[in-house]
Amino acid sequence: MGKRLTVPVETLLASGSCVLGPTVESLEEDLAARCGTRWAVGVSSGTDALFATLSALGIGAGDEVVTSPFSFVATAQAIARTGATPIFADIDGATMNLDPVAAEAACGPRTRAILPVHLFGLVADMESLEDVARTRGLALVEDAAQAFAAEHQGRVAGSWGIAGCHSFYPTKVLGAAGDAGAVTTSDPDLAERISRLRVHGAGADGLHRELGGNFRMDAVQASILGAKLPLLEGFLSARFAHATAYLDALEGTDSVLPSVDSHGRRVWSQFCIRHPRRDALRAHLSSRGIGTGIYYRLPLHLEPCFSYLKHRVGDFPNAERAAREILALPIFPELRTDERDRVIEAVLEFEGGAS
Predict the structure, then answer these.
(1) What value does the mean pLDDT of the chain take?
(2) pLDDT range class, residue 353, cuts 50, 70, 90
């Protein structure tokens, strides 16, 4: 682990160095080391990490970026905010990540980049997507917002493409106490340009030679993340134990269980099953005092904000089926064993027809 400033929030506030500064720089060094990249650039959120990266790559009006229709809306909105067009390609029915074959088929003469999402902590099929991007001369940008520290084939999420975009929203596996994000990259020019864009396009001389924005990370969030980073492996171990218990107990039920990575490490940011009677199961769990979540109610191509793309029901059947069946069970480091077992018992009760 690199050097770190352990700065109490009171001292940090008294210093007046509350935005960027040495605390953020120290965290950036540690994030880069953790992800296996040369640089990390701290930004204000995972959403802004995506937008700043696409902007720094020069993607804009007239361009297209291929991405998944099954993700948080920020993935495709970041593309649209640059003026480019999000081009959706269906997901793999088992992993729920972007299908490389569908992604390649969606590429056209205006395609500038492919933006896969490491959904629910599982690294996408990056070997295949790398091949597509390399063959077609496209940028490969990772949406790693849900997969910090996930690994595949010995490589960490955020180190595969030209850039990895991370979110440290409080519910993530590494969460701040508010919004924060980062871009990891080994490309010096990209790191430098994102560093300028996050401060309104200002260079070291203070002159604004391009249009940027306010994408800065604040030092309080960096201090919190710096304190939590050494604890990350413990957080991930707890999540893994809960996931393993769910997988073992629910095998053979009507629940379609999430994929594991036999060549890496899934970080289990969520534990999402799929169930043909999802809404009834959710109501049953709620009646037992068990909270659940739905990620996502609509695939992106059917969200109202993307109606201008003129997609219809049936365009991406795997994503649409996932949206109908997905259900997130409780999984977080502080979840007690007895609480997890109560979730399992309630799901099995439903499967046995006792609901």
Answers:
(1) 94
(2) low
DSSP string over 172-213: SSS--SS--EEEEES-HHHHHHHHHHTBTTB-TTS-B-S---
Question: If you average pLDDT over residues 174-180, what whole number do you get?
Answer: 95
Could you tell me the residue ranges of all domains in the chain?
Answer: 9-230, 232-351
Q: Which strands, in side-by-side order, build the sheet including 264-265?
A: 155-156, 151-152, 264-265
Residue 354 has a pLDDT of 46
Tokens standing for residue 108: 């056209």
Residue 355 has a pLDDT of 42
- Alpha helices of the chain — where are they, by DSSP H? 9-15, 22-35, 46-56, 74-81, 100-106, 126-136, 188-197, 219-228, 232-250, 278-287, 317-325, 337-351
- CB atoms inside a 10 Å sphere around CB 355: 15
* Token pair 């134990």: residue: 241
pLDDT tens, position by position, 193-236: 999 999 999 988 888 989 999 999 999 999 999 999 999 999 99
Sign of the CA dihedral running 73, 74, 79, 83: positive
Q: Residue 166 is encoded by which pair of tokens?
A: 């991370």
Provide the angle, in degrees to the nearest 10, between the axes of the packed helices 232-250 and 337-351.
30
Overall average pLDDT of the 309-314 stretch: 97
**pLDDT tens figures, 146-167:** 999 999 999 999 999 999 999 9
Return d(Cα 165, Cα 218) in angstroms, integer. Answer: 17
Q: Which CATH class is domain 232-351?
A: alpha beta
Fold type of domain 9-230: Aspartate Aminotransferase; domain 2 (3.40.640)
The pairing of beta strand 151-152 with beta strand 264-265: antiparallel
Q: Does 261 score more than 70 pLDDT?
A: yes
> What CA dihedral angle connects 148, 149, 155 and 157, to 10 degrees?
-10
Cα–Cα distance between 6 and 275 in angstroms, integer? 45
Structure tokens at 316: 């991406």
Q: What percent of the residues of the chain are helix, what percent strand, and what percent coil, each to the nearest 5? A: 40, 15, 40
